[in-house]
Amino acid sequence: MTEQAQKEVSSEMTIKDFQEGIRDGKIEGYKCVNCGHKRIDIMEFCPVCHNSKLEKVEFSNSGSVLTYTIQFVAPEQYMNEVPYAWAIIQLDEGPKVTGWIPFITKPSDLPIGQRVIFKKSYLPGIVFEKSN
Amino acid sequence: MRNVYVLSADMTKFGKSPLSARELALEASKKAILDAGISPSDIQAAFVANAFSLSEKQGHLGPIIMSGLGVPDVPASTIESACASGASAIREAWVNIGAGIYDCMLVVGVEKISQLDTITATTYFSFGSDFVFEGACGASFPGLYGAIARSHMTKYGTTEEQLASVAVKNHENALSNPNAHLHKKITVDDVMKSPIVASPLKLFDACPFSDGAAAAILCSDDFLKMKSRSASEQVLIKGSGRAGGTGALFQRDDLTTLNAAVLAGREAFKMAGISQKDIDFAEVHDCFTVAELIAEEDLGFAQRGEAGKLTQQGYTRIGGELPVNPSGGLKAKGHPVGATGVGQVVEIYEQLHGQAGSRQVKDARIGLTHNVGATGGSCGVHIFELT
Q1: Which of B152, B335, B370, B382 is catalytic?
Q2: CA-CA distance, A53 to A38, in Å (whole number)?
Q3: pTM, full prediction
Q4: Closest Cα to residue B260, out of B214, B291, B290, B288?
Q5: CB of A123 within 8 Å of any CB in chain B?
Q6: Is B353 labeled as catalytic in the residue annotation?
Q7: Which of B16, B91, B194, B374 could covalently link to B114 via disulfide, CB atoms 3.0 to 4.6 Å apart?
Q8: Which residue from B330, B337, B339, B334 is spatially nearest to B25, judged by alpha carbons?
Q9: Domain count of chain A?
Q10: Is the ipTM of this complex over 0.90?
Q11: Residue A25 is part of which domain span?
């Protein structure tokens, strides 16, 4: 393996890394070394410039709600949490991630654009709460 | 490319069935073979559209189905593109026949899911999205479309009543479709008062979990000649388009459109050499009510944000300017995942041949199908014309 290839491999993020990061209260993803595009994904090429050199980075835990739904029926792991909002959140550095916000029962509880923050939790997934 | 025709298309009833996927697939295939007036030995290859056969502890459906048709030597493999498996299989058969590899193929779409309880079935459906970043992060499958619906409402002012009007129309259409899963007339008020599943979507905004199968025999001009059949009054595949999108909904910049549908539609229209106004009716992928509105906008039948109003005004009813989902759509005809896209072709076939009974679209000559995988990771659009 060339030195270059080794460097690329060492910066790869596995699904396990991502999920362990969440349990430690960190949201991790990629930044493209060439164009700077930031994305939370499992990938080998940048979707913007198609460069293969990506570095693993940690993003801040703050962002805004782009859109959401309030679920009254949920996947197995979340059956006991309903109702809750499942939201698509844009983190402050730009990449998007999804997570859930407990205790949201009606649309007036959560305006689009609401500021939210992720905090380390014993609950499944990425739990956000409203912030200022 | 050579001309490719739909020689026949037929289906089982959609709904809850005690039969397994292989039995349903065989029933639909037998009907299509007999309708086409061919022998199973005329079939040179087959594609099976299916997503969840492993839930019945059975993979490798192709050879099992071909063995049941008495032709185990015929190659058959499964094509999986979640809910767009049917359109993908039609597309690949069209490619194979068009390219001259085969002259006669069977495409059979099938799904059997009613053996699963609702939570398990819901979980299976969410496997069609990017499960690590969506399903495992709390999204149900209806939740993904709930987020799409909220985006559409926020951006364009689409209302929940407009969404409900899609369900009312499609339930009405399904009343005259004997193969439909749901035969129940509903009102906007019924939809509005049904339990919330993933707001703003309610139970009656969602398609049911269905079992069922649909099959089509596709063939070339040479096959018609060999069988001394006329190439007129046949259903010709005039345009085929297929495109992809991110498997993950959340990665997209605009949730009010499915880019895969825009691209697939464009490709199909370009190939057919016709425009939206030439289409007499369309079967579109209304897994949730909002999906029908977005389909109409993505395909260029409606301006962005206008499809809800048009639906309320009756534009898409049978007898309206552009009938959409005369079969009842996924919403009421039912959504046996792998069978859905092939089932759309069954409606095209019946409508173009004037066999659709009281749901017949008057003077239908050109029809379109639009079949979406999950939240738009896959889309296939086909345009069919009666020659």
Answers
A1: B335
A2: 12
A3: 0.96
A4: B291
A5: no
A6: no
A7: B16
A8: B339
A9: 2
A10: yes
A11: 3-59
